[in-house]
Amino acid sequence: MNAEEARQVDATLRRLGIPGVVAPEDPGNAAGAWRVYDSADPTTRQDVTADVLAAFVAKFREANPEPPGKPQSGPTRGFIIPPSED
Predict the structure, then answer these.
(1) What is the model's pLDDT at position 86?
(2) 83/49 Cα distance (integer angstroms)
(3) How far is CA 49 from the centre of its chain?
């Protein structure tokens, strides 16, 4: 993710109460890729992006545990117009 996406992810994590620090992979290159870490210290931090994604999905499953339904694929009402016999 880039810096703008990281800002949005950080705001979403805070709103949902999911712990994590969104920071660039290379602390000296804010224009590079960003990840979610367990702490802000670049020397001891661990990448927890996958865990945060799982927590994010779990939060939304709590809100709506049923998967989206399949559209109805049964018969529909209508008229059958036979071809004209010319």
Answers:
(1) 64
(2) 61
(3) 12
Query: What b/e readout covers 50-76, taking b as 16+ CB neighbours within 10 angstroms?
Result: eebeebbeeeeeeeeeeeeeeeeeeee
Q: How far is CA 40 from the centre of its chain?
A: 23
List, in sequence order, the alpha helices (H) in the chain: 3-16, 49-63
Burial class (CB in 10 A: 0-12, 13-18, 19+), 21: middle
> What pTM, to 2 d.p., does this model score?
0.65
Position 59 pLDDT exceeds 90: no
Q: Are 13 and 22 in contact (CB under 8 A)?
A: yes
